[in-house]
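Reopening: Acyl-CoA thioesterase still failing for me.
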Amino acid sequence: MRHRYDCPLRWGDIDQLNHVNNVKYVDYLQEARGALLHACREAAGVEAHHGDAYVVVRHEVTFKAPLRFRFQSVAIESWVSEIRPASFTLDHEIFHEDADGARTVYLRARTVLAPFVLATGTPRRMVELERQALAPYAELGERSRPVHVTVPRDRAAHYPIQVRFSDLDIYRHVNNVKYFEYFQEARIAGIRRLQHGLVGQPRLASVIAQADVEYVAPIHLRPQTYDCWSVVSEIGERSMTIESEITDGTNRSSQGTVLARSKVVLVFFDVDTQRSAVPPPGFLEALTDALGPMVTATR
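Support: Ran it again with your exact input. Result attached.
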């Protein structure tokens, strides 16, 4: 059985391409996840306890088609794809369905969650009551994989991350959705710097095809900024891959503790056709030159 949640869109969810911004999809998944967990508790006849808490360990998000603003809600189906001793995984699909039942899928995603003790902030194992509550929504499938990135500091672009008070969740950690926003800010800043090295080349839009984020340790509110380090790990015919880490260090000489990792695949995009595009001759070479040491591999 799959849980269905109808999520209303907001005008403020739209980006400059008139698509729902990639960060907002993760916000929708959070809403759907909360609705599913509430349904699990109701079905099992148990009340939520003050000490109950779940943290997101990993998101794997695949963007299938652009979603434009509409006044109708977008549908989200969620189900349990894996239950492990100290975590469980939810799979999601965001879609619209027409009167004939034909489905347009905008996103597929996987979220790994882990229970922890709110009072101590330490992880704990799943208990049998939780397994029973999740069981009706189980469609066990492929296991989620950790996000592996390589971000050498001597070749990485740096972006300072300033945490805002409104970024915090009920656990007084930075909410999992905000990490996507932080990586987006660092990515946009890097692309803006690239434009200076692409003079004479046509301006190409890009959209995200895949975004994977691993949450290693909580980020808290503090006056000092955190560091986001990014490199382009691959340039293909229609895409490039950016690998990033957020750390609590303050400079390049100090590696700092890694708090989150991200791997994002950006696809070059034709605004007129609303499809992926092959850049014109010379563009990829100019891009590689503009990136300089930030490029770690090409294909």
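The chain has a mean pLDDT of 90. If you still see a failure, please send the error message rather than a screenshot.
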